[in-house]
Design goal:
Blueprint (H helix, E strand, L loop, with lengths): L2 H15 L6 H4 L4 E7 L4 E7 L11 E6 L6 H15 L5 H11 L1
Antiparallel strand pairs: 1-2, 2-3
Helix pairs in contact: 1-3
Length: about 100
């Protein structure tokens, strides 16, 4: 896997989350994505909570990418397709910031 591919995996996940806190108490049922990296075993895990995260919630989906192996094109395509569907439910970053400013 190349560093560009690693960045793309992370970038897609961050597009779903945006840059604001993602917790059901804050964002309701918007999807939340966790990105875990395990340098000691060359692994990236992407955990998806389709209706938001709160303590005790089980993940709805998980993708694992081994960074010391070539990227499986079909698996990566499945990841992008799945994440694109989640993105369709997410407000644009400016929409979230505007909502937060109105609440203040």
């Amino acid at each position: 896997m190349t560093m560009a591919e690693v960045h793309e995996i992370i970038d897609i996940a961050m597009q779903v989350n945006g840059l604001c806190p993602r917790k059901q108490a804050v964002t309701g049922d918007l999807p939340t994505v966790f990105i875990d990296t395990y340098g000691h075993v060359a692994l990236i895990k992407v955990l998806v909570f389709e209706c938001g995260w709160e303590a005790g919630t089980e993940k709805d989906m998980m993708f694992e990418f081994c960074t010391d192996e070539p990227l499986n094109a079909e698996y990566f395509s499945d990841y992008k397709t799945y994440m694109k569907k989640l993105l369709e439910r997410c407000p644009q970053p400016n929409e979230v910031l505007n909502e937060q400013k109105q609440e203040e």
